[in-house]
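note to self: dont lose this again. the chain is below, predicted strucutre after it. 123 aa total, dont forget to put it in the shared folder this time
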Amino acid sequence: QVQLVESGGGLVQPGGSLRLSCAASGSIFSINAMGWFRQAPGKEPELVAAITSGGSTNYADSVKGRFTISRDNAKNTVYLQMNSLKPEDTAVYCCAARPVPTYSSTPSEYAYWGQGTQVTVSS
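---
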């Protein structure tokens, strides 16, 4: 089994920054691609960013140029640096992982999930 634990969420003013972390433990050999999803109230989950073990990345159009995903394989941790935050970025952000080296925008194609962390962008 794989456990994913997120941290770093919180309340930030528009234009501010936050960095989310997702630490993996357990059967980490079964992890390849990892991603960050977010879900706002009344909306469907959205893939924000994803990264493979080889470092290939993918971003939602809404966050390109503002968010950066990275991973430290030695620490089994993936990060999401979020800059120039907007109120519409407010959501619960969840880390997800899958055992194949390609990312997917479909939540059901990820085998492992963290518990989520709230990000609120408000003045």
